[in-house]
Amino acid sequence: MQYSLTFPTGTVRYIFQAGFGELKDYMDFDNYVMLVDSRIVELNNGLVSKHPHIIIHAHESRKTWAQVSDICEQLLQLKADRNTTLIGIGGGITTDITGFVASIYMRGVPFGFIPTTLLAMCDAAIGGKNGINHQLQKNLIGTVQQPAFIFYDTIFLNTLPPEQWSNGFAEIIKYACLFDRALFDELEQNDITHYRNHPETLQLLIERCVDWKNNVVMSDEKESGRRKLLNFGHTAGHAIETLHQVPHGYAVAAGMMIAAKISEHETNLDPQVTERLKKLLQRYGLPVSLDIDTGKVMEVLNMDKKRNSTGIDYILLNNIGEAAIKHLPFPTITQALETYAHAGSH
Ligand code: GLY
Asked: What is the pTM of this model?
C-alpha cells in the first residue's frame, strides 16, 4: 500500500508492506547514499554492501555535532552533491541524524527513511523533526523538514531485541491514551508475543499509529498547538532520559504515569484509569516508576525548549482517548514530581 501526504515542509510518500530487496523499484533516483545503523550492518552486512553507505553509531551519546561533521566529511569523500538522496536506515537516532544532516549538507539535499525499529516505524521516523542532542538537553538542535519517503519493511523487526519491542509499545500506548480508546482496549487484550506472532495485526497496528501521528502533525507541523499533545509522557520523560540514560520508551512510560497522577489532581482523571495504564505498561514490559532525582529533573525541565517563563504546557488526560493541555507553573510541577515520581509504586 502507498499514499502521499503533503505537509508545509514537504510531501511524504508512505510505502507500506514493501521488501527492502525491491527498494530500487520504488526509487525514482539513482544518486543516493545510505546512512545505516551499525547494528543493521552487523546483523546483515550483505544488505548494504553493494550500495554507497556510511555507518551511523546510533547511540544517544553519539547523536552529536561530532558525528554530523564526520558524516559530512564522508559524504564529500563519496562525492555526494545537491542531487544526492540520503536514505536513513535504522531506528530513531539514525533517522534523526539523517534528516538533520540532509537539512544542512549543501544547504539541503533530499532524504528518505527506512525505519527498522518498532519505535521508529510508529513514531520517530514520522513528523519531520530532525535533530541532535546537546549535552544538557536531548534534541536541542534541529530542523523541521519532511522526508521525501518512508519505506516500511517489517522484516527488520524479526531481529529486534525484546527491550526495543517494549520501547516501541510505549509510543503505541501513548497514542491509545491520547486519541484511541478502542486501541487501548485492544492492547489490554493482547501482548507483545501476540503481535509478533500475527504479522498482519502488527502491520495494522503500525499503520494506525502512523495515521494518528500524521493526523496531528498535518494540523500543526511546527507544534504551536495540537501537536503538543504528542508530548504526553515526554515532558518528564525527556528529562529522565537525559539524566538517567534509560531507553526512550522506558522514560516515556514513567513520564506517562507521572502525567496520569498529575491528571487525577488537575483534570479529575479517574484513578482507575491510572491503574489501567499502569497494568498496560507492565503488560508490555515497561517500567511504571523510576528512581529519579527530582531536583535534577527540574533543572533539566527549567531549560526545556517547550517551557515559557512561568512553567510548561503539560499534557494531561481527562479520560482514555481524551487529552488536555494545561499550563502548569514550575512549583506545581516540582511538587507533583516529588509526590508522584514513583507513581507506579503507590
Ligand atoms: N521525527 C520525529 C518527529 O517529528 O516527531
From this structure: 0.94
Say what the pLDDT of residue 239 is: 86
Which of 135, 159, 183 terminates a domain? The answer is 159
Task: Give the CB-side neighbour count of residue 91, counting CA atoms within 13 A.
Answer: 23
Are residues 189 and 286 part of one domain? yes
Where is the domain boundary, 159, 191, 208? 159
Ligand 1 atom 1: residue of nearest CA: 129
Q: Which residue has the cell 533517522?
A: 95
178-184 long-range contacts (CB < 8 A, ≥24 apart) are 178/212, 178/229, 178/230, 178/232, 178/315, 178/317, 178/321, 178/323, 179/212, 179/321, 179/323, 180/208, 180/212, 180/321, 181/319, 181/320, 181/321, 183/208, 184/276, 184/280, 184/320, 184/321
CA–CA distance, 95 with 318 (Å, rounded to integer): 33
**CA of 130 relative to ligand 1 center, distance in Å:** 6
Whether the CB of 127 sits within 6 Å of ligand 1: yes
Q: Do residues 184 and 43 both lie within one domain?
A: no
Q: Where do we find the cell 531481529?
A: 159
Report CA(125)–ligand 1 centroid distance (Å): 6
Confidence of residue 346 (pLDDT cuts 50, 70, 90): very low
Nearest CA to ligand 1 atom 2: 124
Does ligand 1 have an atom closer than 6 angstroms to the CB of 90? no
Confidence class of residue 334 from pLDDT cuts 50, 70 and 90? confident
| Helix (H) or strand (E) run with residue 117 in it | none
**Residue nearest ligand 1's atom 5 by CA:** 127
Query: Of 240, 279, 262, 242, whose CA–CA distance to 315 is shortest?
Result: 262
Q: Say how many Å lie between the CA of residue 116 and the centre of ligand 1.
A: 15
Residue 254 near residue 288 (C-beta atoms within 8 A): yes
How long is the chain? 346
Query: In terms of domains, do 142 and 174 share one?
Result: no
CB 158 within 8 A of CB 145: no
Q: What is the CATH number of the domain that holds 217?
A: 1.20.1090.10
